[in-house]
Design a protein that fits this description.
Helices cover about 45% and strands about 10% of the residues. It is an alpha/beta fold. It starts with a strand and ends with a helix.
Amino acid sequence: MSYKILTPTVTLFDNNGNLDIEGNKALIEHLIEGGVNGLVPLGSTGEFTNLNLETKKELLKLYVDTVDGRVDILAGTGSIDISECIELSNYALDLGVKGVLVIPPYYYGIDDEESYRYFDKVAKSINGNLYIYNYPARSGFDIKPETVLRLVKENRNIKGLKDSTTDVGHTKDIIYKVLPEAPDFEVYSGFDSQFIPNICAGGAGCISAISNIEPKMWSDWIKAAEEGDFETIKTIQRKIDKLMELYDVQSNVSLTFKKMLSDDGLNVSVDAIFPFNEISDEDYKKAKEIRAIAKSL
């Protein structure tokens, strides 16, 4: 059985707020060398909400050119403006990415019928594969398994879903509801600690932000799961459970991860979108202690 770890990458900026071209290239190489199966630029960890369309296109072109087919790319193309979402999606797909990852409209509350119409329109307006991004804490909406199945049945290019929810039962319900009708549909957990229950239910793996800083740990976990190495599976689960505490240090963990990448020797600039571009010495010390304890387990 083959499982996957995809990294929702941090976006690296220079001191002027522009893309750190060489830093982003260095991150890509770091993650590929660490053994991840794919990259997801412009997700939540990538701080996509504050980037304009041209910057997003520039970053996606950089990813496609640098990766050069070595691993999969799922491009985050969500936008509050559906026309921008469709334009960016088709741009990314024309570049050759495996698919696009789209979060539903946020700010205004939507219901299942509205979400159905939204994803149905996006799917029918793009020239490639669509992956649904379910993140209730950010969108204010939790898509129902029945709605996912309806969308998949009516749109053959809807190929998967990232489920970023504290309720692992919700992820399992989608797997059990959709996979009998669409066996190739890929369901990824968006919370790192849910990888094992995901694959036990028949899911594809995880889209894990922690893999930005611990790609080798994650690739080792994938290998252990594929080989049935239960002792390694348990050990890494404990490490990941501890690392989950990093998400509580700051509401946007991107700056913490960037600082850790720099501390690890990666030649990257350290900045994040305002107002998440500062972290106190005390909070960063706490984050480093969490990581140190996790690695020692």
